[in-house]
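Sync notes, pocket subgroup
Present: LS, DG
LS reminded everyone that the earlier model was apo-only. Rerun requested with adenosine-5'-diphosphate included. Inputs:
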Amino acid sequence: MADIYGILKNYYGYTSFRKGQEEIINSLLSGRDTLAVMPTGAGKSLCYQIPALCMEGITLVISPLISLMQDQVRTLISMGIRGAYLNSSLTPRQMEKAISNAKSGMYKIIYVAPERLEMPSFIDFACSQNIPLIAVDEAHCISQWGHDFRPSYMQIADFIAKLPKRPVLAAFTATATKMVKYDIINNLHLREPFSMSLGFDRENLYFGLYNPIDKNKFVLDYVKAHENQSGIIYCLTRRYVDELAKELQDNGINALPYHAGLEDSERSFNQNQFIYDKAKVIVATNAFGMGIDKPDVRYVLHYNMPANIEDYYQQAGRAGRDGEPSECILLYSGRDVRINEYLINKSEENEFLDAEEVKKHIEIKLEKLKLMTFYSTSKTTCLRKRILNYFGEVYIPPCNKCSYCMNLSEEQIKKVKVPAIDKELLEVLEKTRSQLAKRWGVPAYSVVNDRTLREMAIYRPKSEADMLKIYGIGQVKLQRYGKTFINAMKKYESE
Ligand code: ADP
Ligand code: MG
């Protein structure tokens, strides 16, 4: 039997599995195809990474976006797991090197873009290797009914059929309706899969709905009160983005804009500043988010009401992927409805659709806008219940984590609610983490996460053995960072 708890602690630094993880891991280890539908931040990656570590050979992970792959591989390496990615960001020489490393058994997990599965050189390589498991991440991309169909995902089954031995298949997604699930199972040719669905709820998120007279003042106060935290502010238009980013900058906050009107280089620069915590706030249109996986986003503010509840929940859901308490605040005004109507009516200048189809699309979008508006204006029940009901889930209120259930006022929500903790020590630890991040050339969250820092501040581990008891500290992190944190705490206490 594989020691999955040992792996969980040694590599990831965690002591218990979250809901669903152990069942999925055991299903894969027993050799059964598995389909898992779990909300963002539930911890899907570990569900295929741990089996990969237990199995002989190389596990392939199919992932749609280059930036996601790079992020995941960076995280693996930071935990001491031998991972690599093969995608178009590599030069031919780097690619050759990676393949030859792989052949010599250097990697346990390789991330690939689906396009690569069609390349003869890659197929030759795969056929020469032992591949016990293939994990398909963001598996909804295989369905036309999903929100992000990618034709190249349709090649996955053909690729698998070419392998000398059929691997176990695992498919993961955060969003799957019945139709999407059906497509995943059929298009991937899953065989009698074990299926796990955890629903949509994100328990660590607070949902707030406010109608401030002065949105800019609200945002400014809120951002100032959350100074040391990362946040995303979504606006409906590029103009709002530019203006709000400027106003924040004028008030001494390093907020950067992100929208499709910026040069590619500026966009990716701003995104990186955000990921590496050089800018705590990013002000963005809906162009921002796909392909970023920053786990420590503590709040998502919607400066405008989005066009529908799907978009809203997806964007708000970028908060708190690490499972820590985070806030999703929607600022509504009547004007937002009219802007959305204007954008919808303008959006359907599509050469592939005839006039009748265009009209129908617009009608559907306007209907969705109505439901979003209704959500934003009627203050009669738990917000979490209303969101989950929209997605067809039953929910029994109160959730005690929304502006309806908690009845928090605008003034109250602008303040940070910090638990009893030595704030000064926490700041020292945060500084230490930034220095380590710089030294290792990784984002701060990849050194250790916020909860790890908080636990250090509370328990103040003095030895390596105590340090290992802290959430998120595994063997590699202990060796790399343990001493530095312990010394920083010693120094703080002696002062
Ligand atoms: P998903 O792909 O489902 O959105 P991830 O795999 O990116 O989620 O995991 C989200 C975060 O949760 C990561 O920071 C991960 O380390 C953390 N996590 C996963 N499983 C556990 C666990 N059992 N205990 C504590 N944290 C976990
Ligand atoms: Mg994921």
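DG: The CA atoms of residues 65 and 291 lie 6 Å apart.
LS: Residues 44-45, 137 surround magnesium ion (ligand 2) (CB under 6 Å).
Action: DG to write up.
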